[in-house]
Amino acid sequence: ALDAALTDLPGPHLVAATAGTTDAGLIDPLPEIAAVCRTHGARLHIDAAYGGGLLFSDRHRHKLTGLGSAATVTLDLHKLGWQPVAAGLLAVKDPRDLTALAQRADYLNADDDTEAGLPDLLGRSLRTTRRPDALKIAVTLKTLGRTGLGHLVDQVCARAGEFAELVQDHPGFELHDPPTISTVLFRPVHATDDDIAAVRRKLLTDGRAVLGRARLDGRLWLKATLLNPHTRPDDLAALLKAVEGTTPR
Ligand SMILES: Cc1ncc(COP(=O)(O)O)c(C=O)c1O
After folding, report:
1. Closest ligand 1 atom, residue 76 Cα
2. How large is the average pLDDT for residues 203-214?
3. In the chain, what are the domain boundaries?
4. CATH for 145-246, among 3.30.565.10, 3.90.1150.10, 3.90.420.10, 3.40.50.1820?
5. Would the CB of 57 count as within 6 Å of ligand 1?
6. 47 in ligand 1 pocket by Cβ < 6 Å?
7. pLDDT tens readout for residues 29-48
8. Were 247 and a residue from 17, 68, 70, 188 both cysteine, which residue would form a disulfide, CB within 3.0 to 4.6 Å?
9. Rounded to the nearest whole angstrom, what is the distance from the C-alpha of residue 90 to the centroid of ligand 1?
């Protein structure tokens, strides 16, 4: 379909692929998309806001094969990077892609200061005043390192796999699909969409669980995004029990 679209539509083209969709954590076939982009001379952006953290993990990094073909990649380290919001990044392969940010204003960066090597934020950000978001990322990387972060990624992916198994083994629940990252979509088998919306809100307002929701294949699903590496198997069983106990019969 992408090949046909790029053939039919007038260029230039920008293709945006996703590595970790918001609803199901799915990863687009990146090498195949990159190959089609190459054939058509299309520019490739990959939204790895959620999935980008897999790069830290020796076990899961292979799922992002092809990411290096993108001209630009977005990463949200407030997702699989355990940063307080906000820690969103745009990574560019060619630094010249940032020239759009190279605005000049005499009152902000006088030529003689720039020539003298004084740093300023123009050229790095659209905003002139901003929080030093890079600092917390640097501290985390220095403290945990890639291996430490990779271990956290492995933990949450493993918990998601275990939760999916619990769902699958339970006759009262349906699993959408085995998780690709750390998102598990599930629903009580006899529940209506309204029941599911109500269950989610009740668990939230009772302070028991924060579940997301996603509409896929025409039905509403509960969404558990596992992001706490300290989650234990008992917590997963308790979550499923809480959903079961809150669902109308
Ligand atoms: C795939 C994907 N892209 C982008 C975003 C937006 O991220 P932010 O809220 O940091 O702008 C999200 C947020 O959930 C996401 O899942």
Report:
1. 10
2. 96
3. 2-140, 145-246
4. 3.90.1150.10
5. no
6. yes
7. 999 999 999 999 999 999 99
8. 188
9. 12
**Statement: residue 85 has pLDDT above 80:** yes
Q: Which pLDDT value is given to residue 226?
A: 96
Could you tell me the two tokens for 103?
């605005």
Does pLDDT of 129 surpass 80? no
Contact 124, 101 (CB under 8 A): yes
- Asked whether 179 and 164 are in contact (CB, 8 A), the reply is yes
Q: Taking Cα atoms as reference points, which of 53, 49, 51, 44 lies closest to residue 75?
A: 49
CA angle 189, 205, 249 (to 5 degrees): 25
Domain 2-140 coded CATH 3.40.640.10: yes
In terms of pTM, does the model score above 0.90? Answer: yes
**CATH topology match: 2-140 vs 145-246:** no
